[in-house]
Amino acid sequence: MSCCIPIVDYSNKFLITSPKLIDLLCYPRFSTLDYVTKIKDLFSLNLRFAVLEGDTVLYNNNILGKGCEGLVLKVEDTKNEIMALKIKRTDSCRFSMKPEFDFYKLANMHNIGPKVHSCTVDFLLMEFLDGVSIENWFSNTKLDTYLIKSVVINILNQCFVLDKINLDHGQLNKLYNHIIISPDGLTCTIIDFESASTSRKVSNLTSAFQGLFFKGIIAKQINKFIDYENKKMECLELLKEYKRNNSRENFDSLMSLI
Ligand SMILES: Nc1ncnc2c1ncn2[C@@H]1O[C@H](COP(=O)(O)OP(=O)(O)O)[C@@H](O)[C@H]1O
Ligand SMILES: [Mg+2]
Questions:
Q1: Contact 128 CB / ligand 1 (< 6 Å)
Q2: Is residue 131 within 6 Å of ligand 1 at its C-beta?
Q3: CATH architecture of the domain covering 132-257
């Protein structure tokens, strides 16, 4: 009796030109011109493969993430370097990825955000972050007071730096999907600068503070361990003061409550 070993390809790594990627590259609406332009750009960015993995499932494929403006895929270049590629959705109202790239660059100068490498009208190529959203991290990690405090201080310090350089992220009121945390909790990275601005009044620290302590699912988790609710009035007073004047002194007063 002959023995048949089925040849099954379990690899989730696909050549950039693979038909498997067409609907992802041109999400949500395909056009030939758009696809051809994108393939050319991907070659000019020296990208060779897309690795279909991540927690988001789209058309039966795993990807790193999907937002209102873009899809994010894990990719590999000709030098076998792994990176994350943000693809502008075809229904995005953004004209180009360049403004987000420039905001990321500014943040990167202060060691904030995934390091960005290059961009085209449709793509932004950046450092791949190996971690989970802050929301999932808080739900799935064995928490303790020390770990929570170190994560919170790490995030608030980054927000203070953004405030000082006048770069308003713009979406830190929705904290749950704008920070990626490494599994060990040591690295917290603020992502998604597509709504950022250097002309708006900054509200990074005040937005993140609310999301960490007073509003939403993360605050609920944190308050199970450390009761900040009873310091709420004091915090709100100091936040008001910080809003008026985002000095180091006012920041330190807030941090001393933590
Ligand atoms: N550098 C990265 N490394 C890994 N995953 C990322 C990276 N950047 C974004 N993601 C994932 O992709 C999702 C969508 O990215 P985001 O920049 O928020 O897009 P949008 O502007 O459309 O909201 C994020 O929530 C995150 O899960
Ligand atoms: Mg987003």
A1: yes
A2: no
A3: Orthogonal Bundle (1.10)
Q: Tell me which of 192, 193, 194, 195 to substitute to probe ligand 1's pocket, judged by most ligand atoms within 8 Å of the beta carbon.
A: 192
DSSP 96: -
Tens place of pLDDT for every residue, the chain, 258 residues?
445 565 555 699 999 999 999 999 999 999 999 999 999 999 999 999 999 999 999 999 999 999 999 999 999 999 999 999 999 999 999 999 999 999 999 999 999 999 999 999 999 999 999 999 999 999 999 999 999 999 999 999 999 999 999 999 999 999 999 999 999 999 999 999 999 999 999 999 999 999 999 999 999 999 999 887 788 899 999 999 999 999 999 999 999 998
CATH 3.30.200.20 domain range(s) in the chain: 13-127
Q: Which CATH class is domain 13-127?
A: alpha beta
Q: Which atom of ligand 1 is nearest to the CA of 66?
A: 14
Give the integer Cα–Cα distance in Å for 205 and 207. 5
In the chain, where does the domain assigned CATH 1.10.510 lie? 132-257
CA distances from 200 to 106, 165, 192, 203, 214 (A): 15, 12, 17, 9, 24
